[in-house]
Amino acid sequence: MSGDDCTACEMVGNICIPEQTTTPPKASMTAPARPQKRASAECARTREETPTKRPKPALRKAKVEAQRAPPGNTTTIITKLCHPIIFNNEPADGTNTCNFCDGSSMAILGLEQKAVQVIAWENGRGLREVSGGHKAEGHPSTRVCTPCTMQRMPIIMCSKHVLLPIPGTASRILDADGALTALFAGEIRKKDRWCSICPALASYECETAQEDTGAFGTEGRGCGLQLCETCMPSLAGVYDGDLQAMLGELTDESSNERPLGLRADFELLKQDGLLTRYVLWASEQ
Ligand SMILES: [Zn+2]
Ligand SMILES: [Zn+2]
Ligand SMILES: [Zn+2]
Ligand SMILES: [Zn+2]
């Protein structure tokens, strides 16, 4: 039942995504990307059948540090979140004030999209809004609890996303209208599972079993990546399974493919994003 079980992919006719060439962020701190471990005949065949509209991207930069803006410099980002984002947010009084799992639509729709001038602080792991931001309008920092922070790491570190249909979604029509109506009313219904990248219901999930490090509470389960009918074929076909390349090229704006743009939190799945930087920083404390 591992991610390398390509025979199983073949048998049920699923799309098997070739192994990523990117390494998990921890490894990328010290070592260049590993070569692909193996490419079975089944995988190779699947790859040939998959339309590839762009070349395999170059290997990611080896060091996260290299991608950090020099401290003290202001840059402008497009964001729907309020910075600095507070990760691993655990208030001392025990209340849950997480904006991502409080049943609200914040993780998906976020605040109004803004071009915000920011300054990097504390070794690049956070951004302070300088001007044009949500802080200036009186919004508090976006708060993300520890489970919501750590649950995203297996997606970022997954060695090879193997996407299979979510049981039940193929046989029944998803209530997309109801889901979106609730979303725009500010709520996420418990029964809805959303795409990790855009505001659409997910039909596929990664089945790649994660190493049981105990750190992320995901023993034996998939990495957590869930994709919709638009993002799954895009990742498999256009980006050859390289989620990081896909996230690097997508921009959060309305398009024919994704009329609602992207999720407010999509950038947090980036290997060099704020969440990864925070987790790496926290692990060194
Ligand atoms: Zn395969
Ligand atoms: Zn949470
Ligand atoms: Zn995965
Ligand atoms: Zn999507």
UniProtKB/TrEMBL annotation:
Region span, Disordered = 20-69
Q: What is this protein called?
A: Uncharacterized protein
